[in-house]
Amino acid sequence: MNLVTISLCMILKNEEDVIGRCLDSVQDLVDEINIIDTGSTDQTKEIVSHYTNRIFDFTWIDDFAAARNFAFKQATQDYILWLDADDILRVQDQELLDLLKRNLAPSVDAVSMHYNLTFDYQGNVSHSLRRNRLVKRSNHFQWHGAVHEYLAVGGNILQSEISVTHLGKPHEPEHSDRNLRIYEQQIAKGITFTPRDLFYYANECFDHRLYQKAIRYYNQFLDTEKGWSEDCISACGKVADAHLELQEKNKAVEFVLKSFSYDTPRAENCCRLGLIHLTHGEIEQAVFWYDLATKLDHKNIQDKSGFINNSCYTWVPHVQLCVCYDRLGKYRLAKEHNDKAKAYDPQNPAILHNEDYLNTILWEKKK
Question: pLDDT digit string (tens) for 124-157?
């Protein structure tokens, strides 16, 4: 059996708090580690030197794709794996990658992996998506985009069950100004944004509470009619949230409904509609949308590499239906849905509180 060989390629700057954790999780699975440093002033290089002597300097030019393409050029093995410094492979995923390495057919051009982004209080994955993580070096796949860069791949893509887990960095601000600054420098230079740039610039505006600007650029993105359908669905949800922040309910509803024109309804947007109606006392309408969310399966979305909020496909719509039926005085239905929510999340404090409350009410009604 001929095992494929793997080059790990990473770009780093001032990652002393997390890089050791990342490399510890993957060093035994790769045949080469290439580190591209873009200007560290801490102990990053010293820490990395314990894992590899393949450390390269790259002058930062506000262009993530340029840095990643430079990193890929340093690779010498069959396949290239890319990670960020605050990512790890958990033990079970290390085992899956080892198995993949032993069995990967040479005809595979790229391997897609889950990317676990956030977690609930029990450590279960609450938000995830897919990314092409392992690519054949000889295909010379390229990165594109100065910010929120993406790797353009083609050919035979294997959808694996391996997950990369994003742990984040200690004391990291929720939203830094770096990406917003790069985009606004590009605007000042007269650079024409691609549809993808419009989408991600709108995301940056939204994250920085620039809601009017976010709405404008999301609409410009949607008007191109050239965006990836998953991004269009996400944009509609974000526009709806921005309108809600601006107290514009009808506009919010309009854009959630617009998301359904791009694909089958997503539970995230059904729950959005449910919450809008619930907040405005429109309980029957809220019940309709939360009930629909309970009937949707996230597996199809996972296969499309879209962003998934797992809670909207599991316990959230049930616990919200519990709230709705309680307000309608239908306490047995409320308990039925709270029990379903508990089956997904047995230790959730809100669900346990609902359970005690409903048991008391139903007991009193028996008297």
Answer: 888 888 999 999 999 999 999 999 999 999 999 9
SS3 332: helix
Residues 203/152, Cβ–Cβ less than 8 Å: no
Q: What are phi and psi of 216, to 5 degrees?
A: -60, -45
Question: What is the mean pLDDT of the segment spanning 291-319?
Answer: 84
Query: Residues 80, 137: contact at Cβ < 8 Å?
Result: yes
Residues 159-180 as b/e (b if ≥16 CB within 10 A, e otherwise) read: ebebbbbbbeeeeeeeeeeebb
State pTM to two decimals. Answer: 0.85
**Residues 238-286: pLDDT tens digits?**
999 999 999 999 999 999 999 999 999 999 999 999 999 999 999 999 9
Check which CATH number belongs to the domain holding 249 and give it. Answer: 1.25.40
Listed residue (255, 256, 277) closest to 324, CA to CA? 277
Here the tokens at position 39 are: 């200007």
Six token digits for residue 302:
């996972």
Return the CATH number at 69.
3.90.550.10
- Report how far residue 123's alpha carbon sits from residue 129's, in angstroms, rounded to the nearest whole number: 17
3-state helix, strand, coil in the chain (%, to 5): 50, 15, 35
Q: Give the range of the structural domain holding residue 268, as residue numbers without chain letter.
A: 264-367
pLDDT of the residue at 140: 98
Q: Rounded mean pLDDT of 343-354?
A: 94
Chain mean position to CA 109: 23
Domain tally, the chain = 3
Give mean pLDDT, residues 181-200.
95
| Residues 250 and 271 occupy one common structural domain | no
